[in-house]
Amino acid sequence: MSKYLKTPDNVLSSDLLMQSLHDYLLDELLPAIRQFSLSPSEFIIRDNGREILQKILDNSNHQLRIYGSAQELAENLKIWRDFPFAHEFFKTETDLFELNEVTQLKSQLAAGNFADYASKFPVFEGNSRSKAEESELCRLLKQNHAILGETDGAGIMTQVMNNSILIKCLSTIIENNPKMFSEKGVTAVRVFEDGSQRFVMKAELFHAISNGNKLKDDEYRFTTISMEEVERIYGHRVKNIEFLRTPIIRARHRAVFVKAHLQGDFCTLATDVLFDLLRSLIIEYKVFQKYNPIDWIGLSKLFDLNIKMAFNVDCKTPYFLRHGSWHLVTCIYANLFDCIEHIPAKDIRNAKIDGFTVQNLKNELIHLGLTMAFPEIVNHAEAVYSAVDGQKRGKYLNTSDLFDAVFHSQIICIFNRYPKFKTFIHNQSGCERVLGYTCEMCQKMSDDQKSLEQKQLESLENKTLSLKEFETMKRKILELEDENRKLKDQNSRFSSQVKELKLEKLSINSENPSTNFSVVSTKTSISECLICDSELDTTGETKKCPMCRTRFHSKCAIEYIKHEIKCPSCKGTLRNSMITSKFS
Ligand SMILES: [Zn+2]
Ligand SMILES: [Zn+2]
Ligand SMILES: [Zn+2]
Ligand SMILES: [Zn+2]
Ligand SMILES: [Zn+2]
């Protein structure tokens, strides 16, 4: 709906900026922003908060380097914050009434400056306000202000006016889009698009098909069904459903929420939850830098718990995890985090201004002490490096990219030690999101695909006989085309003849009505001139009787009408024509 409500999309309230920043950052990094406070004048923030984020970064003691520049953080925060129904999530529905400008209006109203207030009242598209309406608005404001009294008349009226602005906005939208709001209108179901995958939430589809009945879905998992399956299984039953394209959008460092089919509930794709978990373990708690030697059996048990609760290894369609499940996924690590909290660990160093090399990455992995947990980790550096390099946003790789490279190198090592995550990610079609990772299952699939294509090619070769048939058909088509061309030629010859005839007729019909004999170049009727009894040749000029249209030699006709009145053929009078004829 946001496309109908035209508001500048880079303006937000400071509350929303700080709340979304608080939720976007890794919990361990929150102390870096805790001491930061905004001055009251910074209530409305423009440019997606880039300036304020710059101040925050400057004051964060380099703790927030993972998020890149203020510009990058502002952009990612915007992506993360601006999902459909985000206002329900952040509970910002009332923000509109608390904006700075409203306070200004209030003070103007309190000071009796009604004209200014009235001029602020929005004008809707195509309905400009006349002077008379403007002064009527002023009068009403004055009157109502007096009735409401001095105490908080201004406050109440400001609220009322803003409500009425909203209502007018909404009713305009509803009037212009009756289909969207009428009860008989089509039901909408979101089609989520993620890469080449297209899927819908089962519960949402079921709700649309069965007129409001609810599907009993898992409490924490919202399953989906692919669009191909929807078309195959439900076919005609979904004809009246409008499918709304809903791309899955991702911020760089935290999964973006999606509104669930239930009122006020939100969820994220399960794969995104796994990435958030891994980011928490790797970047936030530095588990694999601190926890040495790692008790892989113990850790696998914790992973198994996650698999059981959240990451269904067998599920081959994407599915969502409810917002609340994040706590279930992470709380099992509480003891582990407690145990390693006091172990010191090195921070990722800054990349140079002109980026970093594969060797820099290898050195960094060693510097961070990761070869203790993952002796082979530097072997992945090259593949990870080229994948990160391929995705870099700026001209050079930056510190934020180095964080990514270190993050993904560790994911590959974890996957190799705990293959259930591999299967999960593969079945959810998320393998490409692990930078530098080569999935054996994906490779096998592409090998199978290749051999299938090879087979298809071979079977094509077997069809060379039908290729001959094709040749014969082609020849036949050519013959037909040739014939067609001949017919066309003939046709055009005929039509040019018809045109000539028409021209002739035209020149006959367009004879000056007073000129009864006219010049005609005749090729058609070969007969005798009734005046001289000799043949009318095909090229000579003739004149004809306007009544019987009998032709005579021009010379004969001119001579004839000097002393005769009647046509030799029809005996009609030629006298008038004798007088007016330009030949006479
Ligand atoms: Zn929080
Ligand atoms: Zn818990
Ligand atoms: Zn795969
Ligand atoms: Zn003649
Ligand atoms: Zn005649």
Mean pLDDT across residues: 81
Assign the structural class, choosing from mainly alpha, mainly beta, alpha/beta, alpha+beta, or little secondary structure: alpha+beta
Give the DSSP E fraction (strand runs of 2 or more residues).
5-15%
Q: How many β-strands, per DSSP?
A: 12
- Rg over CA atoms, rounded to whole Å, is 43 Å
Give the bound compounds. zinc ion
What profile does the largest beta sheet have?
A: 7 strands, mixed
Quaternary organization? single chain
Runs with pLDDT <50, length 5+? Answer: 1-6, 508-525, 578-584
Distance between the termini: 86 Å
Describe the global form.
Answer: extended
Strands side by side in the biggest sheet: 6-3-4-5-9-8-7
Helix content: 40-55%
Number of helices: 26
Protein name: RING-type domain-containing protein
GO biological process, one term: innate immune response
GO molecular function: zinc ion binding
Organism: Caenorhabditis tropicalis
